[in-house]
Each structure stands twice: as C-alpha cells, then as structure tokens.
C-alpha cells in the first residue's frame, strides 16, 4: 500500500508500533485543521500552536489504545477540544489575538454600517466569527471539518439532540443577523 | 419536550442541511432532506443559503495560517518524547517507489509522486540527506533558513524519472512540497548570484518545468 492510499487507521496502527514516519504523515494530513480548530476555540494562535503539537504527541502515546470506533480525525478533534478547554480553564484571561479581537469586537461602526461596506459573503463570514462559541463550533465542525451529527456529539461530548439544537440556533442567529443587515433569506 | 422535538419540519430540514452538504447525512434523514429539496420551492433557496454558510465557514477557517515550521518543531518534540530516531534499514524503498511511478501512466504517476514526495519529506527527518535514488531530499543537516532556493511547479504530464535524474545531476534537493497548488521548494547549491541565475535558468528551460519563481539568492561578495 502506498502512502497515498494508506488510511488514517492503518497509519495509527503503524504509530502504535513506534513508526515515527507514520505519525509525521498523520501530522501533515491533519495538523492544519487541528490548529485552526483550536485557534477558533481559544482565540489564540499561540495556544493553538502549543496545543496542536500536544495533540499529535498524545496521538503518539495513545495510538496503542486506539480502538477505531471513530474516525481518526474525530478522535484528534476530541483530544484537541479537551486540551483547549483545559488550557482555557487554566488561564482565566483568554488570550485573544489582537486582530481577532478587533474583528470580533470592533465597535467603531454599527453592524449596519459595517455591512454596507462589505458584500454578503464577507458579512456572513464576520457573522460566523461573531457567533457564540457553542454555536460557532458546531458550524465549524459541520461545514469545515465535515463531521456528522454523531461525530460532533463525540468531539463536544454532548448528545446528538443537543448538536441539532445548537445547529438550529446557530443557523437561526445567522439568518437573523443577515436579515438585520438587509440580506433577507426567508428563514427563520 | 425538548427544543429539538419542538422544531417544525422546515426547522428540522434547515438544521440538517449542513450535514446534507458535508455528505454525512444518511438513512431516513437523508431521504427526508432530498424529498424536501424536491418538493418545496423554498428548499433550493435554503440550500443556497447553506452553501453560502459553507463557503463562509471555510474562508473563516482558512484565513488562519498554521506556522510553516510546525512539522520541524513537532519532530523535535517527538524526538524529545520518544528518544533519538533509529537508523533506517535498507535504503532502496525510494528507488523502488520511483521505478514503480515511471511505469504508471503520466497522470496517475504524477498524483502518486506528489504523495510520495510528501512522504519523502517526512522520511527525511529520520534520514537526513539520505540518498534514496537519483536525487536527495533536504535534511536536518541542511540549514534551510540560509540556503538559496527556488519555487518550482512541474507540468502535470512531467515524467518523474526525468525530474529525478535532473535533480540528481544538478545537486538540487527538494526541501518541501508539493503545496496544494503543486509547488515544490527546491534548494539550489549556488555559491554566487551568477551560479544561481544559471541554475534557475536551467530549471526553467526543462520541458517538464511549468513555473519557476526565484527565491533566496546568494549575495555576491558577502
């Protein structure tokens, strides 16, 4: 089997046997997404850098115990989520990158004025970024990480019904924000 | 009754649309969404809105750029965790892989080559500068932060054997790549700006070279 076709699970099996090339290949496949996931969770690229590294070291250590009940990507995101929350709990003050903070909390213009200056796609992106964390994370996991309802439940450690409820309210809030900005989309 | 149970049919379908779009929906829920999309004129507009959210979320995530040196720092952390890497056994794996590639149709071979070279990059950290075939991969002993380099994109129908021979003959090394756009970072063993220009010109003149962008160049007299 070539590297191109070797599955994540096969690579984890190799990692479990001490194969460092395999863990590096998994790092190359998944690091960017894990990094972005943690950066979005914590608001800090510095924390994302440290935590993403820890996630793959954890993969190295835990590979012998991986039972393959979930996809490797879901497993890694679950580890990342746990580590991100632990780090945030340790730091009472969240580290928010100045640029991110400006993007989220820029109060110089009203939302209407900001929106008039940008097109709908840019407005939507800003609104996604401004969603409460519990809503934004389900949007990220579904749209960017391609996770199913069940997988999101595993990553966030919440019931499937809660995943759906959060997705419902996340999309509802986006619809309301778009509507308030003059982009009526008919729902909610 | 939970909030989820109180949803109207429209609300349920809107909630499932992100999962329909990411391909993870299945069974009765998939059938319900497909039926809705086929029967309700408002559904296609809703799908368009969900697609816009999909694009917006991807753009918001991809605006975050992981550090370029993440893999090398992870490698150091892994070595610290697991101890020094073992010396590799037989060295013929790359030669075998390359010979298999040359036997493939060009399109297939090139796609496989991209994956192989990604693996080569990974392996290079355990086997610094190791000679696997006609060319070398830049390894830990190469100070990539100082070496002259160029960014090169090869033509999709380029033959791997031609590229490997050319790299080997000219002492060129693959430092990293390919990127998502198929660009490789090649180190250039030039001592002077003139040498560098000559080598870059030589690469650009090759029939398999698609694009060559100059990177770090030696400074004469420095």
How many strand segments of chain A? 0
Low-confidence stretches of chain A: 98-107
Low-pLDDT runs of 5+ residues of chain B are 87-93, 101-107, 118-136
Percent of residues of chain B in beta strands?
5-15%
Strand content of chain A: under 5%
- Helix count from the secondary structure assignment of chain B: 8
Give the helix/strand class of chain B.
alpha+beta
Shape descriptor of chain A reads elongated
What's a quick, concise take on this entry?
The complex is a heterodimer of chains A (188) and B (222). Chain A has ten helices and no strands.
Account of the 3D structure:
The complex is a heterodimer of chains A (188) and B (222). Chain A has helices at residues 8-16, 20-42, 45-62, 72-90, 98-105, 111-116, 120-130, 133-144, 149-156, 160-180. With 188 residues, chain A is mainly α. The N and C termini of chain A lie far apart (49 Å). Residues 98-107 of chain A have low confidence and may be disordered. Chain B is an alpha+beta fold. Helices cover 51% and strands 10% of the residues of chain B. Chain B is elongated and about 70 Å long. In chain B, 30% of the residues are buried. Classes of the chains: A mainly alpha (188), B alpha+beta (222).
What is this structure's SSE topology?
The complex is a heterodimer of chains A (188) and B (222).
Chain A lengths: L7 H9 L3 H23 L2 H18 L9 H19 L7 H8 L5 H6 L3 H11 L2 H12 L4 H8 L3 H21 L8
Helix pairs in contact in A: 1-2, 2-3, 2-4, 3-4, 4-9, 8-10, 9-10
Chain B lengths: L8 H13 L5 H13 L1 H22 L7 H13 L10 H10 L3 H19 L11 E2 L11 E6 L5 H10 L3 E4 L6 E5 L5 H13 L3 E6 L8
Parallel strand pairs in B: 1-3
Antiparallel strand pairs in B: 2-4, 2-5, 3-4
Helix pairs in contact in B: 1-2, 1-3, 2-3, 5-6
Labels describing this entry:
heterodimer, A: 188 residues, mainly alpha, 10 helices, B: 222 residues, alpha+beta, 5-stranded mixed β-sheet, 51% helix, 10% strand
């Amino acid at each position: 089997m070539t590297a191109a076709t070797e599955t994540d699970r096969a690579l984890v099996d190799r990692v479990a046997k001490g194969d460092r090339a395999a863990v590096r290949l998994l790092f190359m496949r998944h690091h960017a997404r894990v990094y972005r996931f943690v950066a979005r969770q914590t608001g800090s690229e510095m924390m994302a850098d440290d935590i993403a590294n820890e996630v793959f070291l954890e993969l190295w250590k835990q590979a012998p115990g991986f039972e393959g009940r979930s996809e490797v990507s879901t497993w890694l995101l679950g580890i990342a989520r746990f580590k991100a929350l632990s780090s945030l709990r340790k730091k009472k003050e969240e580290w928010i990158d100045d640029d991110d903070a400006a993007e989220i909390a820029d109060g110089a213009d009203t939302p209407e004025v900001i929106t008039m200056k940008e097109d709908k796609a840019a407005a939507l992106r800003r609104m996604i970024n401004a969603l409460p964390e519990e809503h934004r994370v389900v949007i990220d996991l579904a749209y960017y990480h391609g996770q199913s309802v069940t997988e999101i439940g595993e990553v966030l450690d919440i019931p499937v019904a809660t995943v759906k409820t959060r997705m419902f309210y996340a999309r509802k809030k986006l619809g309301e924000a778009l509507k308030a900005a003059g982009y009526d989309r008919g729902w909610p | 009754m939970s909030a989820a149970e109180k949803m109207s049919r429209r609300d349920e379908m809107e909630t499932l649309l992100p999962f329909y779009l990411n391909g993870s929906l299945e069974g009765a829920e998939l059938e319900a969404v497909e039926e809705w999309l086929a029967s309700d004129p408002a559904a296609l507009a809703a799908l368009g809105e969900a697609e816009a959210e999909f694009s917006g979320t991807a753009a918001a995530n991809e605006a975050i750029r992981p550090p370029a040196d993440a893999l090398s720092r992870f490698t150091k952390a892994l070595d610290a965790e697991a101890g020094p890497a073992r010396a590799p056994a037989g060295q013929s794996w790359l030669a075998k892989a390359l010979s298999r590639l040359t036997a493939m149709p060009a399109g297939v071979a090139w796609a496989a080559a991209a994956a192989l070279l990604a693996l080569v990059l990974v392996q290079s950290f355990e086997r610094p500068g190791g000679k696997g075939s006609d060319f070398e991969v830049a390894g830990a002993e190469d100070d990539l932060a100082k070496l002259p380099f160029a960014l090169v994109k090869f033509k999709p129908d380029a033959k791997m054997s031609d590229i490997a021979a050319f790299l080997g003959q000219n002492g060129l090394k693959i430092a990293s790549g390919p990127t998502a756009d198929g660009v490789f970072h090649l180190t250039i063993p030039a001592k002077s700006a003139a040498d560098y220009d000559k080598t870059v010109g030589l690469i650009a003149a090759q029939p398999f070279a698609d694009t060559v962008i100059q990177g770090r160049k030696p400074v004469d007299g420095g």
